[in-house]
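check this:
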Amino acid sequence: MQGRHAFEPTSRKTIDLESFVAEDHYLRKVDRVLELSFVVELTAECYSSGQGRPSIAPEIYFRMLLVSYIYGISSDRRLCEEVRYNLAYRWFCHLSLEDAVPDHSSLSRIRDRFGEEIFEKVFSQIVVLCKQKGLLGDPCRVMTDATLIAADASLNSLVNNDPKEAKKEAEAQRQDRGMIGPSQQRRVTNQTHCSRTDPDATLAQKKGTPRQLKYKVHQSIDADSRVILDTEVTTGARHDNQPYLAQLERLAETYNINITEAI
């Protein structure tokens, strides 16, 4: 049926995605110096050619990770949504308007498939590239600090390591919920309790912050360029000085550098 509101066919137009990204856009500046071709070789063993559905290219995956880091996007689901709608993100990730953005579940599977070893190799290769570009001096000065980060587990997930005591505490909590009578507030420590949802997390507290289940990230950087050279994650209860010397030795050996000053 024809009418005044009928839609007239329009000619198909080709849209150049790059034209939407300003020359001074931060991602364009990153792209000019970014060289990620090496990740294809590092991750080759994780792919099987000609079998199953086409895989997400490893360079696209790592470019998406860069977007999430640069713009503080901590959720895989939100990252996929942002890349879908943001033209600059699409351009940076080498995705055209017709390309489907990877599903958030695919990012999780890729992360599990690569494993810690692949990510460590990628990290080390990036530091090597920084050294080639003069961002890592030799000899060099190294600064190290540790930061507590909250684990994805609540204090309610803590259970006593002693089965008998754990049973008593569970019964006391049920009484509190049923308002049978007030029970004694339980005392928990890293020696007596463990989280059932995240056993690797431990209780830790920094002055002025509440006690939580946490991890600790120990990072060493080049004192002049501020390039991160090494990262080690421990439980929140691990003291800063415990992994320190081993971290310095690993740095000197891995990148063949002479550390003249450690801060």
